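YM 10:42: phosphoglycolate phosphatase sequence, as discussed on the call
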Amino acid sequence: MSRPQGLKPPRAILFDWDNTLVDTWPTIVECYRDTFTALGHTPWTAQEVKDRAHGSLRDAFPALFGVRAGEAEKVFYETFFRIHLERLTPLPGAEELLARCNDLGCYVAVVSNKVGDNLRAELAHLGWQRWIKRAVGARDCVRDKPAPDPIYKALDGTGIAPDETVWMVGDTPADLKCAHAAGCLPVLVGGAEELTGLLLDHPPRLRARNCNHLVALL
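YM 10:58: structure's back
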């Protein structure tokens, strides 16, 4: 997809975190595997995790584990805290993308369904605070993505209102739904072909293959 003609330059770019800027699928898959196993469920395959694990745990786990949701979350985070920083890997072109956004004078923030404190720990681990001004994660707002609340919090105090000059960039339908709900420009980066049918209700205005392609669209 090329950049639509007449599209205004972005004033702000809000990025999803997991698998938009950093590769965390191996960590997420292992956390889900250990959780399902501990609670006596058949673990999802890696592909099933990629297809289904798009919401915050506080939204997803009650439906998956019922009254044992709290127990499941405890197991998940036991694995997560053991491995998440040592395995954290920037996606190719992510640093160049963030630097380019800053060169263009864009306000840059992260809007993620990773718990806020864990998100900010990963951001600090990579030293990316020089590019990213604010990081809003799960439980930082009353509602998580796909509700628009995290976008509003990310923009609070900036003087920038949600419109098509605010890009919400992510790799899942939840990111696009969040962008539509807030009135921002929805941008899909990556995303498997099987997502196509899920995008009809909340389609992207821009679609990039990866971080490097998004640099070219900018």
